């Protein structure tokens, strides 16, 4: 039984089964670099045996790959094909990646970033790129519980139910006024989900974003060119608005590149 599946790149899918066995599914084929000797992937299933513990998350940025195992260990792997654990000194809870950047969330609530920074997507206050993990100081004093990366922006949720965003904002995907097209520092989202709205889940698409509140409400904002916000009135939603798609509580939302998937149902006692 499949426990978790996520996209590695445009033609490859990683699958984790309930028996903690990892597989790579590739429609075109390629070369998987997870340490040891490289393994050809050609449209079937292969078991990743190079790491002692199955993968929980995997992402790839250009020639480097980053993976989180089910026991909370984080590894990077470059051209030498050997997994290396960077000196974080903390166990990792989650890894997320955009088109050219990545975030790492530790179990203590700290967030690190690396990759391309030309749109402020690293949250480090500048537009410089980083080849190694850098602590995002702007939210270092806030315990973060979840991270998500869009194409060129990031969204995080704190333990206290607040949301912070940074990066490219040309299409209002940050939930802030589009006056500033780039926001290089983590900034609190105050409109639309303020008051008693406690955010428990966040997700980013390429140019849009979504969240779920403790009350099971789903909110969306950003680019709506392809109807990914379920709104027919505008191609751009600059404010965080509630998705009035269903009268049932929303339990999960997932933004893909140009679409949004919502799981909504009533739990029976």
From TrEMBL:
Gene3D superfamilies: Regulator of chromosome condensation 1/beta-lactamase-inhibitor protein II. It holds the Pfam family RCC1. It comes from the Eukaryota. PROSITE patterns: RCC1_2 (PS00626), RCC1_3 (PS50012). Keywords: Repeat. RCC repeats lie at residues 109-160, 161-215. This is Uncharacterized protein. It comes from Amphimedon queenslandica (Sponge).
């Amino acid at each position: 039984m499949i426990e978790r599946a996520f996209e590695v790149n445009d033609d490859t899918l990683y699958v984790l089964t309930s028996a903690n066995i990892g597989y790579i599914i590739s429609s075109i084929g390629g070369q998987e670099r997870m340490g040891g000797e490289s393994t050809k992937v050609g449209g079937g299933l292969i078991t990743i045996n190079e790491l002692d513990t199955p993968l929980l998350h995997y992402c790839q940025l250009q020639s480097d790959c980053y993976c989180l195992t089910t026991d909370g260990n984080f590894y990077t792997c470059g051209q030498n094909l050997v997994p290396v654990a960077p000196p974080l000194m903390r166990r990792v809870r989650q890894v997320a990646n955009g088109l050219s950047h990545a975030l790492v969330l530790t179990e203590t609530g700290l967030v690190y970033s690396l990759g391309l920074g030309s749109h402020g997507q690293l949250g480090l206050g500048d537009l410089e790129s980083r080849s190694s993990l850098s602590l995002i100081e702007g939210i270092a004093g806030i315990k973060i519980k979840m991270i998500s990366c869009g194409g060129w922006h990031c969204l995080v949720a704190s333990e206290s139910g607040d949301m912070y965003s940074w990066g490219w904002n040309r299409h209002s995907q940050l939930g802030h006024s589009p006056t500033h097209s780039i926001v290089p520092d983590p900034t609190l989202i105050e409109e639309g989900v303020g008051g008693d709205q406690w955010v428990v889940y966040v997700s980013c698409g390429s140019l849009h974003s979504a969240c779920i509140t403790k009350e099971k409400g789903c909110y969306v904002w950003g680019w709506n060119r392809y109807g990914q916000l379920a709104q027919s009135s505008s191609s751009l939603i600059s404010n965080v608005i509630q998705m009035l798609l269903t009268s049932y509580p929303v339990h999960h939302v997932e933004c893909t590149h140009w679409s949004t998937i919502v799981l909504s149902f009533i739990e029976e006692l």
